Amino acid sequence: MAIISFRLNEKLFLRDPQSSELGQNIVCHSIALIDSIGFEQFTFKKLADKIDSTEASIYRYFENKHRLLVYLIDWYWTWIDYRIEFAIQNLRSPEERLQAALKVIIEEKKNDPGIAFVDEQALQRIVMAEFDKTYLTKQVDIDNKEGLFIPYKAVCKRLAEQIKMANPAYPHPHTLISTTMLSINHQLFYAQHLPSLTDLNKDSAKSHQALYEFCESFIFKAIKS
Amino acid sequence: MAIISFRLNEKLFLRDPQSSELGQNIVCHSIALIDSIGFEQFTFKKLADKIDSTEASIYRYFENKHRLLVYLIDWYWTWIDYRIEFAIQNLRSPEERLQAALKVIIEEKKNDPGIAFVDEQALQRIVMAEFDKTYLTKQVDIDNKEGLFIPYKAVCKRLAEQIKMANPAYPHPHTLISTTMLSINHQLFYAQHLPSLTDLNKDSAKSHQALYEFCESFIFKAIKS
DNA sequence: CTTTTTTTGATAGTATTGCTATCATAAACG
DNA sequence: CGTTTATGATAGCAATACTATCAAAAAAAG
Questions:
Q1: Which residues 23-82 in chain A show a CB within 8 A of chain B?
Q2: Residues of chain B neighbouring A199 (CB-CB closer than 8 A)
Q3: Mutate to test the interface with A, among B136, B152, B216 (most CBs of A within 10 A)
Q4: Domains annotated on chain A, with CATH
Q5: Could you report the per-residue pLDDT of A62-76, keeping only the tens digit for each?
Q6: What is the pLDDT of residues B89-140, one digit of tens each?
Q7: If you write DSSP's letter for every residue of chain B in order, what string do you get?
């Protein structure tokens, strides 16, 4: 099996973390650490201690912890986009393509041994809990100009294209897709922590399935003319 | 016109900010300051300087800046819930009630002179940009147990009840409502900062209207049997 | 297999943040 | 008028978010 890696936006880092062992350690252990203590509590000092390195060394790779978070999340959406492309390649109708793409986005991730030094399950939890924080900032316009949100926007664009093909008259394809994506990123968190906001239950296998059914149903009903 | 004020959860503060001039100053100027520099950059020190007071004095009212943010946002949702109750009082059908409630939530806020020391427009922007940060934390379960999210959950519950009445067979009333609320809180931000994620345009008057139409349409299509 | 360059570690230092504690003064209250 | 209570002033502390310097180690180049 081929070992894949993604080339991410160079503005994300000062030195490419994929180019050295220390860099890979930073990425790999930052996922574990952010997943376990949350982004607010996460510091380069704590990470440095975990990997037996120093704060200064980590700063040589990432300008600050916000950029590191964006790096991880861009990796995630790049990976999702790649998997969607793969999943829809033999499907012709926009409806089938939408369904296949939704499945990729919503399904519970398994660790793919073909992918180096990334714990995809932990990363999915990070996306659920921290993704919004990457753009809900005062520097959003600068970050956006630097292309930091391209991978996420690419996934959304791909889905919106299928909506447009399924029903060219539907007036809100982008709004519908970004709403769906928000829902996907939040509902499983609600199931765990704020259950009164969702009908999904805590059981993870079932809730992923129920979430898929919810999204599929409301997308197709929304665009039906 | 009656001057209204809301009694909020006592866990939110150490001393009730509504009980003194300093407290009111803290609330009023924290809204302006968070709106202008964002929650990450916001500190009690900066707020103290603005109101010619001291850090120590502010800490007598709020345990930390997170609690202050939750206080502001709880105030907002309490106010919205109150206005929804008012707006739907003479409406009988769940459909009409849903529509009226949606309008209250989505419409561009105007400053209500009947409400003391709160800039509702700024607060709505804060809700858009910072609300998710109140619950996307590692302490979410503790905060939830202390009742910090009750006002938001109350709004969601009220809407979900109407969904259930409109179509008792619909299987995802809470998921549908919390998805709608997410969309409302994010789409206008997208229109300003990440326009490729939405079909709303930057013009605020039009975008509020278009957002209403989008939400109404997808809710009613979703629950149609 | 040296020499040079690059990368890392070690250490130090600084400004800011997120608090807590103490004490004097001012305001409010009885 | 005396006494709670609220505020301001100041100090201090540990942690955070960096930046700078220098030497050692590792990698690359000759």
A1: 37-38, 40-41
A2: 171-175
A3: B136
A4: 10-131+138-223 (1.10.357.10)
A5: 999 999 999 999 999
A6: 999 999 999 999 999 999 999 887 777 678 999 999 999 999 999 999 999 9
A7: -PPB-----GGG-SS-GGGSHHHHHHHHHHHHHHHHH-TTT--HHHHHHHTT--HHHHHTT-SSHHHHHHHHHHHHHHHHHHHHHHHHTT--SHHHHHHHHHHHHHSPP---TTBTT--HHHHHHHHHHHHHHHHSSTTHHHHHHTTTTHHHHHHHHHHHHHHHHH-TT-S-HHHHHHHHHHHHHHHHHHHHH-GGG-S--S-HHHHHHHHHHHHHHHHHHHH--
